[in-house]
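Let us work through a complete example step by step.
Step 1: write down the sequence.
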Amino acid sequence: MIAAIAVFAVAVVAGALHYANASPVLVFVVSGAALGGVAWAIGVATESVGAKFGPAVTGVLQSTLGNLPELFIVIFALSAGELVVAQFSILGSLFANALLVLGLAIGAGAWSAGDGVMRFGKRLPNDTATLLLLSIFLIALLGLSDQVGDKASEHQVAISVVGAICLLVVYAAWLYGYIHAERDRGAPQEEPTHGVLPFPFALGLLAVAGVLAALVSDWFVDAIDPAVESLGISKAFTGLVIVAIAGNAVENVVAVQLARKGKSELALSVVKNSVSQISCFLFPVLVLVSLLFEERLTFVIDPVYIGALALTGIAMWQITGDGEAVLFEGLALIALFVVLATLVWFE
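Step 2: predict the structure and record it as tokens.
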């Protein structure tokens, strides 16, 4: 209760600074902190709501609602014509979850394991890698078409829309099979990291946090332009690193805590579901939503990030596909994210 009040207090301060026309840098920093807090509140409430449904449904719920800040940030960025921020926020969420958060979770899980090996089921890691590689195929295809300037490059929006629909259909089919398989298997219930909140209170917290996610995202996006100009950082770095880390507070905190307590299955479920959702649900949905705005979001990205995405997919599959991971593998994923962030800093 006290933590929830603190989160809402930070959001109120961010709103007060925004409407008082305070320093854009101050609004940017406080709104970023509020985004992380709101994401945490969503995670706690969702974990309580999903506790009765088992790790599969709980992981999906946490990933879906935990991605609300990213969803609102991208929508407000598109409405403000900030296409770079919108695109890099999505990419940043992918990289942050697949590299940084997964690496931290593996590190915590391996460190806590008696023999230094974190063990988990093979299906979800392999399914997630397949879904991520499917989206990378679409991104790489459009990127290559754009680079060579063929006839298809003149229809990037139309191809992106068709690709988005295909990704959503495949994701829906996977999600249906995944949840039903977990139910049929009779997956054991796991004790929530933060304890179970009363169901009505958890629903109320979820509703309030969802509204705050929309409001704070609007204030955050509004402060981006003047703030990054004052700080001397690029919009690409802001989207790929700052927004990604703030918006993924749920995965950052929950996954590491679960892994540290030896709950490897649920920890991997939170992270992996987030990766698959961003690549095959959130990104496609935002591509379709962008049709309502003047700035259209497509799957076309710069070649360097296509390469980074492809290598991320391969690294995830290689490290988690066998159902085991050790400390150095977690550190390797974190190192990949640090190198990528450094590259974007100099862009």
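Step 3: interpret the result. The first strand starts at residue 117 and ends at 119.
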